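FIELD: query
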Amino acid sequence: MGTSLLLVSWEQAEKIEPYDDRPYDEIVGLWMPVVGTQYGQPRKHRERSGAIYKDNFELVPEPGNPFDHTALAVDLNGNRIGYLSASYAAHHHWRVRSLNSLGYRVMVPGFYRSTFNAIAERDCLEAVVLRPTTQMYDEKLEDQEEQASRLAELWTALSHETRQGIARAGFHLTDETAGELLELHDRFPGVGLPTLPYAEAMPRSIQLMLRNARHEEAEIRWRIARELDAKALDLVRGGTSVRDASSEISISETRIRKVMKEAGVTAHRKQANESRNSLVARLAEDGLSLSEISAEVGMSVSAVSAVLRRRGVRTRGVAGVNEWSRASMLQRVAECADVVKLQDEGNNREEIAKQLGVSVHTVKKRLSDGHFFDNPRINPDRLDLARSVRERGLSQSQCSGFAELRALTDGNVLDLIHPLWI
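FIELD: result
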């Protein structure tokens, strides 16, 4: 049943005038009528008609309400008598649900009476309750910014396809993408997720989580773009033409020329230093990493990588292949390939999970990884980040966040199955 939580005490409520015009941050609530009471089921009223009674009323979220997914119903002694206004419910539905997820039944003080209703042609209840202001909820709830920062794990737990879909929608949920998020309810019980996949019924912390994810995604894209700009300049300074540099790193010639103009670099073609390039190739064949070759010959990591790609020479991972043994990495690739094969045979995720004895979430992750390992070019963002992490020579401790850690592992796996991927 939960513990009853009276958000506003009767002592506080009795100090509020019926038409209190003080600023909202100075009062605990406002007296407002409960709407729709005349549409409730007929009941025997023990109360004397016209007499006014006071009691505590419960606020109950109705995310499955067909007319309003953020509806807030009002119950009196377990009986549904009506609803709070739609405008109030839209702002506070998720707050009530969050308190419910913490084990509280949200109660508010109010008055009611039984009186004859000419439209319904029977006795109906009339009720007014004290609708709490925002600060009364927030006193009982965790700070939403802090909760959103902790929900970064919820974002990374979603499948790659779902995250991409949310990103394409401007980092806003739809009813479809909200459905997968609700599958993680048991892992995040204190968030106050709704029971049905309605995007507008999501708590504020989820919206803030998506905002944080959008900022993080923008930061990653900005950083990768700056790294590509620097790589383009390095190639041009090393004698590579703008056209070849554009083909090499997959950015437009227009972008490269703009970066060159901002840096004051003029395009020119130098005669290739064959002896230096031969030294680079020999060092790579001897087992040195990109960063070690860079330090040895005095070239940037990007320039070393370009020379080796042109010569078809691969290097060992600079991040340390000991993180995953060769056998375990190949086992992971095989597991992902098995899941992809089962999907190609017409099985859905739930069926695959049942056959393999794993969770649906694990199936989603293996499908995403399996498609990427089979053809890394189908996910250019993930491939670019893996290249960036490799070329910067990041170790596990130097990675900032889940995306770079996964990119580090991706690079080690791709070394085995796509030797020329970088």
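FIELD: remark
DSSP finds 18 helices and seven strands in the chain.
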